[in-house]
Amino acid sequence: MLILKCPYCGVMADETELSPGGEAHLTRHGPGSDDTEFEAYLFMRENPRGVHFERWRHAHGCGKWFHAARCTQTLEVFGTYSAQTTRPPQDLLDTISEKRPGWRWRDLA
Ligand SMILES: [Zn+2]
What we know:
This is Sarcosine oxidase subunit delta. It is a single chain. The protein is of the alpha+beta class and 109 residues long. It has one domain: Folate-binding fold. The protein is 17% helix and 28% strand. It is built from two helices and six strands. Strands 3-4-5-6 form a four-stranded antiparallel sheet, with helices on one face. A two-stranded antiparallel sheet has the order 1-2. It is globular and about 40 Å long. The structure holds zinc ion.
């Protein structure tokens, strides 16, 4: 069972307390963007075998959205952090790089 620590209230919440929100750190395209950008925003998602950044909501707790970094292959959770950011905290990226040599941010292949 997936267990994530809510970065706001500090509760270790299992997946029955959480609602998934899909991929984190999407670049949003709306009015004024071209069709290719808008199509990519609507439909194209990473589906890595390994490190993935996701949005979660502590639905049966504080109700706030947060981000989580985890491995889709091993289910290891690297950390959680505020959703009010455009990129993961540097210390989390450093931790992931130490555990997954060769991995880099936005190098999800
Ligand atoms: Zn919470």
